[in-house]
Each structure stands twice: as C-alpha cells, then as structure tokens.
C-alpha cells in the first residue's frame, strides 16, 4: 500500500515515558480534570435568601356552605349533648352522689359562697348542657372536676362525715371519667374539638346561636318579655323516659331523652 521509494513510509521510534507523560499531561491532568466553563455566570453567584411566603388565605365560604357546615356541626354536637345528659343522669340516680345533685342551700350553709367562689352541681351541669355550653366532653369533665374540688376544699378532714363526703366526691369524678373514657370514641371527641376551634375562628358562639337567656325574676322585677323562639324550645314537654346508652363498634348511639327522669330525681 505504501512505497518506500516515494517516501510514503515514515519510521518513528517508540516514545519514552517522559515523552508519553509530556503528551498526555496537559490533556488528562488539566483539561479533562477541570469542569467545563459555565455559559451562565449568574449560576456562580450565591442565591438571594427570600422570606417565607405567607400561607394562602382560606377560601371564603358561601352562605349556603356555611349553613350546611353549621348543620353538620350541630348534628355532631347534638349527639354529644345526648350522651352528656345520659352520663349526668347515671351520676344523678347514683345514691352515693345525692349530695352533689343540687346547689348548696345558703340557709343551711351560710358561709359556703364565701369559701367557694365557683359553686357547681349536677343540676347546673344539666342546665349548661341544655344551653349548649359544653362543645366537648373535656369541658364537661372540667365542671365534674370543679364539683369534686369544691367538696374537698369546703370539707376538710375533721370528722367521719367529712371523710365520707370527700370519698364520694372523688368517686364522682372517677366514675364520670371512667364512663367517658370507656364509651366515647376518641375520633368523636376530636371532631368536637375541631368544631369548637372552627366556631371560635368564625366568631360563632355555640350557645348564643340557639338560646337567648331569660332574665331572672328577682333581678328584673315585672319583666315577662322573652324571645318567642326561646320559649318554643324551653317549653318542650319533658316526660320521664327510660334512658340507655347502647355502644356499637366504637360509635355513639343514643336515642332516648332522659331530661324528665333526671328532673324527677332532683325533686326527691
């Protein structure tokens, strides 16, 4: 293929180590080891630290959506009130807790209101349930704690009667907590807590939306004007009906009204 006479063949010697190093050093050690030059010079500059963007504002609900939401919330809170009435009823009919069913008579215990700044009893608890003042079971148990703490504060250990009353006050608290913790689903209580927070953010009061407080006769003499809507709700008949608390698959199932039976026991 190649003619030596025409000088088409060129003979070379094998390269030495120094020659090979000199040939590849610039290519391998310098050019190949360095990153390629960036076409965008801004990539080498440090990025500006920007503040966190505020969370997006919640979408404003329409009047129809708000009405539907309130109806769903009221359905849940109605189940809660039915359950709390049932729990209170079971506490009222228990003879051990008879001393805590009605307010303390100031004529029998003149200094009670001086010692106890926030009286509480089971009949007042029932009234607060009717007035939608317990959006969660936790709020209900706070008043049960108040009944117990008032009894312990006013009745120091002096005689066997005081010891018995203190024992029954502690038993009342433990019984109420045991009933609620054993029967109420945690998801249901969490839902009630979410409703409470949601209404607080919306500025909606759980009680004022459904009831208007009637003026006291002794504080406003001769006052007979009341809200007609309130009268319709407050004049509902309350006949004695058996109460039960069926429990099925972790859900509350309450069907009976027990207000009349509780009021009948309170009159005894």
UniProtKB/TrEMBL annotation:
Pfam families: Bromodomain
GO cellular component labels: nucleus
A GO BP annotation: transcription initiation-coupled chromatin remodeling
UniProt region (Disordered), positions on chain: 33-59, 215-242
Matches recorded under CDD domains: Bromo_AAA
Keywords: ATP-binding, Bromodomain, Coiled coil, Nucleotide-binding
Coiled coil residues, start to end: 59-86
Gene Ontology MF, one: ATP binding
InterPro entries: ATAD2-like (IPR045199), Bromodomain (IPR001487), Bromodomain-like_sf (IPR036427)
Domain Bromo: residue ranges: 100-155
Family membership noted in the UniProt record: Belongs to the AAA ATPase family.
Protein name: ATAD2 protein
Organism of provenance: Nicator chloris
Gene label: Atad2_1
């Amino acid at each position: 293929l190649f003619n030596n006479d025409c000088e088409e063949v060129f003979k070379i010697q094998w390269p030495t180590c120094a020659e090979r190093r000199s040939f590849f050093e610039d290519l391998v050690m310098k050019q190949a080891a360095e990153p390629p030059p960036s076409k965008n010079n801004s990539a080498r500059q440090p990025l500006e630290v920007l503040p966190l963007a505020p969370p997006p504002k919640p979408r404003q609900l329409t009047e129809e959506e708000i009405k539907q939401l309130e109806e769903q919330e009221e359905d849940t809170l109605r189940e809660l009130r039915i359950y709390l009435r049932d729990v209170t009823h079971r506490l009222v009919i228990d003879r051990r807790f008879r001393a805590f069913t009605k307010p303390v008579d100031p004529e029998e215990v003149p200094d009670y209101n001086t010692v106890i700044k926030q009286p509480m009893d089971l009949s007042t608890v029932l009234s607060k349930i009717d007035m939608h003042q317990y959006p969660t079971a936790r709020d209900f148990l706070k008043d049960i704690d108040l009944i117990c703490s008032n009894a312990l504060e006013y009745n120091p250990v002096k005689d066997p009667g005081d010891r018995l009353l203190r024992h029954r006050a502690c038993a009342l608290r433990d019984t109420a907590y045991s009933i609620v913790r054993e029967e109420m689903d945690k998801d249901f209580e969490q839902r009630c807590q979410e409703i409470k927070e949601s209404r607080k953010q919306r500025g909606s009061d759980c009680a004022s939306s459904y009831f208007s407080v009637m003026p006291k006769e002794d504080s406003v003499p001769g006052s007979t004007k009341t809200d007609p809507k309130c009268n319709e709700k407050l004049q509902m008949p309350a006949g004695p009906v058996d109460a039960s608390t069926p429990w099925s698959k972790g859900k509350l199932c309450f069907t009976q009204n027990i207000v009349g039976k509780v009021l009948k026991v309170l009159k005894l």
